Amino acid sequence: MDFEQARVNMIKQQIQPWNVLSTQVLDSLALVKRERFVPEDKRSLAFAEIQMPIGKGQCMLEPKIEARILQALAMKGNESVLEIGSGSGYMAALLAAHAEWVRTLEIDADLARQAQANLDHASVSNVIVIEADGTGGHPERAPYDVIVASGAVRSVPQAWLDQLKPGGKLFAFVGTAPVLAACLITKQADGSTRSETIFESDVPSLAVCTPADRAFVL
């Protein structure tokens, strides 16, 4: 399979038609090798417009969804980032291309090890995968400029908001299936927050320790 041509086709046929026009975002999608983060037996589908299963009931988000998240965050390259839900490590790699450093939390030990291996193989050096439940965030490196939840939650945990810097941005899919709001939340200087719905989608729930919320995602 010609992965490079498939990557070009993905950008032209999936990403750009979904109103992702940021040069920085398109460049990172071209540079980060998505196929390196996909299970070997599914690499022929690495650029398909689907939620890609990666095992343990988890999946990678559609490429256009990942691209819209990056565009909405409009990162400058000097941000500290916390990702909740590592999955394959691909979204962390994309975030790392726009940030100073990334910490990404994964509740499943096997997936955490695989995500770190994928990132190492892709020579992404500014990401560390941490095996942990993301419900409480990661206060050890807080506060963060950017927090991204790579799966759906019924509501945004207060811990995430508390660990966001003033002026910082938090992205999360909020609500219940089948229609979830892709929310960009900005923390104001006085500690209040402003939320904007960027688009709507249906994505898997984020895996956390609470049984009622335990469906999962990337």
Description:
With 218 residues, this protein is an alpha/beta fold. It has a domain at 65-213: Rossmann fold. 27% of the residues lie in helices and 29% in strands. It has helices at 3-15, 23-31, 63-73, 90-96, 109-121, 158-162; strands at 52-55, 58-60, 80-84, 101-106, 127-131, 144-153, 164-176, 179-187, 193-201. The strands form two sheets. A seven-stranded mixed sheet has the order 5-4-3-6-7-8-9. Strands 1-2 form a two-stranded antiparallel ribbon.
Give the helices and strands, then pairings.
Elements lengths: L2 H13 L7 H9 L20 E4 L2 E3 L2 H11 L6 E5 L5 H7 L4 E6 L2 H13 L5 E5 L12 E10 L4 H5 L1 E13 L2 E9 L5 E9 L17
Parallel strand pairs: 3-4, 3-6, 4-5, 6-7
Antiparallel strand pairs: 1-2, 7-8, 8-9
In short:
The protein has 218 residues and is an alpha/beta fold.
Primary descriptors:
218 residues, alpha/beta, Rossmann fold, 7-stranded mixed sheet, two-stranded antiparallel ribbon, 6 helices, 9 strands, 29% strand, globular, disordered C terminus
